[in-house]
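Protein Entry — a single chain follows
Fields — amino acid sequence, structure tokens
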Amino acid sequence: MARRRVLSFIVILVLAGTFPLLLSMVPKVKAAYLVPGDFDNIQDAINNADINVSDEIAVAPGFTNDGCINVSKPWKIYKWPLTDLEEATILGDGISAVVTLSANNTEISGFTIRNGGLRPGIAIQNATSGHLISHNNITGNSAGIYPWGPTGRSTIHSNLIEGNQLAGILVSGWGHNISHNTIIDDGVGIEGTVQSTVLENNTIRSCHGLGGEGIALRGSNNTVRRNLVVDTVGPAIYLGPAALECFNNTIENNVISDNSFGIQLFNATSSFVAANNVNHSSECAVKLHSCTFNAIFDNTITGLSFQNEGVHLYSSNNNTVTLSSVANCYRGIYLQGSKHNNVSSNYGLGNRIFIDLLNSSHNSVAQNEVHMELLAQWGVRLTNSSENHIKENTIASVQNGILLNSSNLNTLTSNNVYRSTAYGIYITQSEGNSLTGNLLDGNGYNFAVWGSHLSHFNHSIDASNKVDARSILYLKNERGPLQINNDTLPYGIGYLALINCTAVTVKNLDPLKRNGQGILVVATNDSAIEAVKFQDNYYGVYMLWSSNNTVSRCSIWTEAVDGARGIFVSSSTNLTLIENGISRNEIGISLVSSTNLNITHNNVQHNLFAAYLRDSSQNVIYNNNFADRRQITIDYLPNSWNYSDIGNYWHEWLGDPPYNITVNNLDYHPLDHPLMRSLTGDFDWDGDVDIYDIVMMAGAYGTIPGDKKWNPFVDLITDWEINIYDVVLACDSYGESW
């Protein structure tokens, strides 16, 4: 008997504990409470209806609930039928939240919710979860949806949220799904501190409030995908740190247009930004600030007429930017103060600068492809950046290919630069860079190295680098005697540099053309350059800090490019320039801070200026032809313009000597007839007698001084008439060369 009592008592306890669960499993007796009908307003139904009979409150279309409501039990409150076009309205008092969800697992669907004033349209109570908010029109509140603290696992979808002052949706907590909402003319679209939340398929437009972000999330493990974000004054999508960290977020397949920033990550780690289409951001399409180990890949970025940046890594390390297309930006991909990043396999079109590194080091820039309009300034530019590896990039049809400016210890490997209107590779004020296997073809100037100190020319550049299919020969610290000619390298020589060399002779090379310098001579002594043609270089011969060298019988010309120099000599002494033909440059011969040069038997004509001398003195300049519109630009320092009784031929000089250059520079014995080259008939001084020389003579045949076509340079027998005797002398030498 006692045993039965105990068993009965246990059964009663079990039934008592499970009764609520059993009751919840019983089908509701009533489908829904009706408002109006069963109750006059929604709050009456919430407060007085028996939720055990039905947990649904259906509100008729056309009904206006005048006053705020507080959903304090897990009610499902909706307009019915939901498809009816007539509104069901919950009208706030302008003082409190229009709708407050203070219980778990509530639902509010199908309403127009407005007039919250300085309070939200829907407020979610702290520490609640499981809410469903859908198909509402939420307008005219401080915020459309606002949490009073962290909440969990809410679903917010298919709402129209418009014209709320602070934000469309403010969210906090974890595990939310926010999708298919249309958010228009709110201060911010969606903002909050969340974990493990999904935002997808939302449309967000015209966020012009304080901050003005389309989506701004702080936290980790969030996914933002397939959203349309247009016209925000702040970033379209922003991810940043919460109290702890911002990591493992995914931003993918979003369409973003007409924002200040497209996507911005701050202090983010191990996140993915993939397959987004970002257009017309006024400042930057994708920006990482103080970020590490993020992947930016397969994005399509279109800029705003060279005004913005495509991808900007600021103080960010160990990130990857790959497989993205960037067009029409000022900077396509910009690394600023960033290290150990991988920029690879991206495609650039029409950017002013495609890849730009500033104060950045240990980055890899590899296998990127650049095709740009001619307004584009640089394919790859490094400034104050060191120990980067620039490899296997293809750069075509830009103004300049690759620039190293004040950048040291970088490696350039197997890059292909072609059809640049200015420079292929341009190195300036930099040290210790290594170049291997780079191919430069058809650029305005294929290659150049510049600097203001000997260390700026200390690079490792081997013969595997080629300009127009011929090798770069970059010699350092050679101690001759050493002779360089066409047989020195198997592919010939396309660019030649002598750095800190002694006793080197360069002779009879095929034309050195289309480089910043035809030959670069730095801190090199007791050497000779003889019978070399230089064509279409910015500087034919460029010589610094050198002495006891000779440049002779060279032909140096270009097509009158602004700033081009035939021979440029700076901070050098005891040089001889003899029997060179220099034409079609802006300046034929330039001397800067140079002394004791012997300049004689040169033909300088068809340049804008024959010569330019600055801070240069004690040079002897005689027996040259100066036949240019503007002859000499010189400062006050004195030089000798004749040797014994031999001066120079000045094309425009008529009258009595001396020929006055400046007060301290006088030619006391100017020549009355041009100097003839020792190779008879080589009128253009290019080292051979060919059809061009015969054409020059034919153009002046039969003329005498004073005739329009008179040319004293083809008067070989100096009888002041171009006649058959001159023709015979020229034809006797036809086909000869140095």
